[in-house]
């Protein structure tokens, strides 16, 4: 990338590579060195948005979930949304009852391996797929039963379409969880869906607010405020606390973008939003894309031959490694700096060491995945009989959008040299305790120019300086406007009704004769003295 290349250039390049026209639903996500997620802003330079050193690792994701995914025009778009929702199901974001979970998993099986074949699919074949953070034998038997008896003859595209229709009916469809705490200190997850703002606590949806009821969103530091206006002019302010100021700002920006995308009729209605009531303070942000209605109208005009879809290799599946292709290079990030071929169960076991994509780490993260042993599944069969009955903790099972390591560049270059495609899904996470990170910390300590402030502290200082400069600029501007108004009132001959009423007030007459006239005479005297001095010299 050129240093001045904008995010839009990179996104268009990627969509051209994928032969994707309905691209407004998607985005590019990356994670900074503090493990905070960000969406790549298309109007800004890619390099300037990155706080890490190249090579940069980014991930192609669904950013705005379609209100009706089955209504998408092209099959390639539906397939990419299918992959995202399948990933959400695996990471614990899409919750459902056992019956719905079995049906969704059976659709995935049918789409990936086709019809049931006793010769190819032995007893317990569904256990080789990892559809959810946790499995039970009872659930696996139900999945296999539906796949064998109800889905025979369905083409992959049909199974994916049925999967999307079912997923869209679930309460947590489109949820991208942001971990927070409410005013009582209870853990909660905030999310923005195609239909509105959602707050989840435990396995319950405690708040659902439609987009037309959300009047304002703002944040101050770690505190996020949502202003709601409901029926009978009832106004509510919901307050939540994010783990860090950066996480709170990311939450606010996601809310602004989602509300603009789903609520507005035209992109021309989009306005710049400030995080503060004072326009010279806080962050300013503006959604730069098209809105949902415009996207649907544009999609209806697409007329081309349907592009070919390479389901086996377009985007390697994390959630269920295909049993028809055998072991493949793991796309799961690991802490060790090596790229090796691992078996399916080893790949699932390695998920235990994965970090979150959010700065908050849950203590129960290691228990979010089922182990390979059948005994552990038997022990947890009663506990996970109904997935929706578990405590809703998406961050427990969310895999990271990782920070790239230099070893990733070597791996990608070697694969390119061998003619193999490089997938943006093959990501790695840089650990704070690695020798490279320790050496970098020692280098910062030795260099006097960089050891004073860390990146986060320097950013806070810059924000404070900018706020002070904005305040000074606004103050000077207001004083200048008042001075111009005063000169017009006292020196001009304009005889409008507005000026006449002001001039006739006793207060203005007193100010004019007791203060302004003496000040004008003093200023004129000093000016003449300076002019005479210049003439004499």
Automatic annotation (TrEMBL):
<dbReference type="InterPro" id="IPR035963">
    <property type="entry name" value="FERM_2"/>
</dbReference>
<dbReference type="InterPro" id="IPR011993">
    <property type="entry name" value="PH-like_dom_sf"/>
</dbReference>
<dbReference type="InterPro" id="IPR014847">
    <property type="entry name" value="FA"/>
</dbReference>
<feature type="domain" description="FERM">
    <location>
        <begin position="1"/>
        <end position="266"/>
    </location>
</feature>
<dbReference type="Pfam" id="PF09379">
    <property type="entry name" value="FERM_N"/>
</dbReference>
<dbReference type="InterPro" id="IPR019747">
    <property type="entry name" value="FERM_CS"/>
</dbReference>
<feature type="transmembrane region" description="Helical">
    <location>
        <begin position="468"/>
        <end position="490"/>
    </location>
</feature>
<keyword id="KW-0472">Membrane</keyword>
<dbReference type="InterPro" id="IPR029071">
    <property type="entry name" value="Ubiquitin-like_domsf"/>
</dbReference>
<dbReference type="InterPro" id="IPR000299">
    <property type="entry name" value="FERM_domain"/>
</dbReference>
<dbReference type="GO" id="GO:0005912">
    <property type="term" value="C:adherens junction"/>
</dbReference>
<dbReference type="InterPro" id="IPR014352">
    <property type="entry name" value="FERM/acyl-CoA-bd_prot_sf"/>
</dbReference>
<keyword id="KW-0965">Cell junction</keyword>
<feature type="region of interest" description="Disordered">
    <location>
        <begin position="353"/>
        <end position="381"/>
    </location>
</feature>
<dbReference type="InterPro" id="IPR018980">
    <property type="entry name" value="FERM_PH-like_C"/>
</dbReference>
<dbReference type="InterPro" id="IPR019749">
    <property type="entry name" value="Band_41_domain"/>
</dbReference>
<dbReference type="GO" id="GO:0031032">
    <property type="term" value="P:actomyosin structure organization"/>
</dbReference>
<keyword id="KW-1133">Transmembrane helix</keyword>
<dbReference type="GO" id="GO:0005856">
    <property type="term" value="C:cytoskeleton"/>
</dbReference>
<dbReference type="Pfam" id="PF00373">
    <property type="entry name" value="FERM_M"/>
</dbReference>
<comment type="function">
    <text>May be involved in regulation of cell migration. May regulate cell-matrix interactions via its interaction with ITGB5 and modifying ITGB5 cytoplasmic tail interactions such as with FERMT2 and TLN1. May regulate ROCK1 kinase activity possibly involved in regulation of actin stress fiber formation.</text>
</comment>
<keyword id="KW-0597">Phosphoprotein</keyword>
<dbReference type="InterPro" id="IPR019748">
    <property type="entry name" value="FERM_central"/>
</dbReference>
<dbReference type="Pfam" id="PF08736">
    <property type="entry name" value="FA"/>
</dbReference>
<protein>
    <recommendedName>
        <fullName>FERM domain-containing protein 5</fullName>
    </recommendedName>
</protein>
<dbReference type="Pfam" id="PF09380">
    <property type="entry name" value="FERM_C"/>
</dbReference>
<dbReference type="InterPro" id="IPR018979">
    <property type="entry name" value="FERM_N"/>
</dbReference>
<keyword id="KW-0812">Transmembrane</keyword>
